[in-house]
Write a structure and sequence with these properties.
It is built from three helices and no strands. Helix 1 packs antiparallel against helix 2. The chain has one domain (about 5-85). It is mostly helical and about 90 residues long.
């Protein structure tokens, strides 16, 4: 299987799971991000950071990492590191 085909197949296979996990975590933390009650001064910034990270992680998983893998694959094949992964 060609490298491009393997990357596309892996992204298509895992896309639903990655998006569902990220969205469920974000939806669960929305009340904490917009809370104004007692203790919200501690919870609100933490919830905003976690929501931002959970929104950014699917982008990295589905776009950035496959692009980096495609760019580095010729280097990995030249050094012989791909032989270990094929076993």
């Amino acid at each position: 299987m060609a490298t491009e085909d393997a990357i596309i197949l892996a992204a298509q296979t895992r896309m639903r799971q990655i998006l569902m996990t990220g969205l469920s975590a974000c939806i669960g933390l929305v009340p904490a991000a917009f809370s104004t009650g007692i203790g919200s001064q501690v919870q609100q910034p933490l919830a905003c950071v976690i929501v931002g990270g959970m929104l950014l992680s699917p982008i990295c998983s589905l776009l950035v990492i496959p692009v980096m893998a495609r760019l580095w694959m010729p280097t990995i094949k030249e050094t012989g590191m791909v032989r270990v992964a094929e076993r």
